[in-house]
Write a structure and sequence with these properties.
This protein folds into two domains: about 90 residues, no CATH class; about 100 residues, no CATH class. Helices cover about 60% and strands about 0% of the residues. The chain is built from eight helices and no strands. The longest helix is centred in the C-terminal third of the chain and has 25 residues. It starts with a helix and ends in a 15-residue tail after the last helix.
């Protein structure tokens, strides 16, 4: 490859400011008619990354009905980005995941609460006179387990969209005011371990 052809290839891969503005408008405004070409694909990927809808490296792993696993064409990518933007418009940004404990601690809390819930469910079978109380305690532990599973999902290893969905779920569970103040539930419902 000659230097001139290499420069031309790089110039085609880097979107212009005008392409970025058009791609941004197309993603954020689904009513705008979509006439995209393959040359707009790089701009769409960059806009999707900036809006925290996708990460460039995960495009080949996102299963969408229009294409089997692999990089989508520009028109399909635009449909995906518009859908994700509409769904995640109110979801917290990824930076809010920093308020969560490390993923390992979240996984440990989820596992612990799951085991305690199983223990309470077994006791409900052994102690039929207390099954209502023990079943309620198991349900509360399962709610803690679900919370910490979602916290683990929000802090590691999942797609950008899945992490933001998890953050939206967590914010909904604790409430916007508590979320803004950084008040999260304990790792386990300690009050259940007294006089049970």
């Amino acid at each position: 490859m000659t230097p001139a052809s290499l420069f031309a290839a790089v110039a085609l891969a880097v979107p212009t400011p005008m392409q970025l503005m058009e791609a941004h408008a197309l993603v954020r405004c689904p009513d705008v008619p979509a006439a995209v070409a393959e040359r707009d694909r790089a701009a769409l990927v960059l806009v999707g990354t900036r809006l925290e809808l996708i990460a460039p490296g995960e495009l080949g792993y996102l299963p969408v009905e229009e294409w089997a696993f692999g990089d989508p064409d520009a028109a399909t990518l635009l449909v995906l980005l518009r859908d994700l933007y509409a769904e995640l418009r109110d979801a917290p940004p990824l930076s809010e995941g920093e308020r969560l404990p490390p993923a390992a601690a979240c996984y440990s809390a989820a596992t612990f609460n799951g085991r305690v819930a199983d223990h309470f469910r077994k006791r409900a079978l052994w102690e039929p006179d207390r099954d209502v109380v023990l079943t309620a305690a198991a349900a509360e532990c399962e709610a803690y387990q679900e919370f910490w599973q979602m916290a683990a999902a929000a802090s590691s290893g999942y797609s950008v969209a899945d992490r933001r969905r998890s953050l939206a779920y967590l914010r909904g569970v604790v409430g916007r005011d508590n979320w803004s103040a950084g008040r999260l539930p304990d790792f386990a419902p300690a009050h259940l371990f007294h006089a049970r």
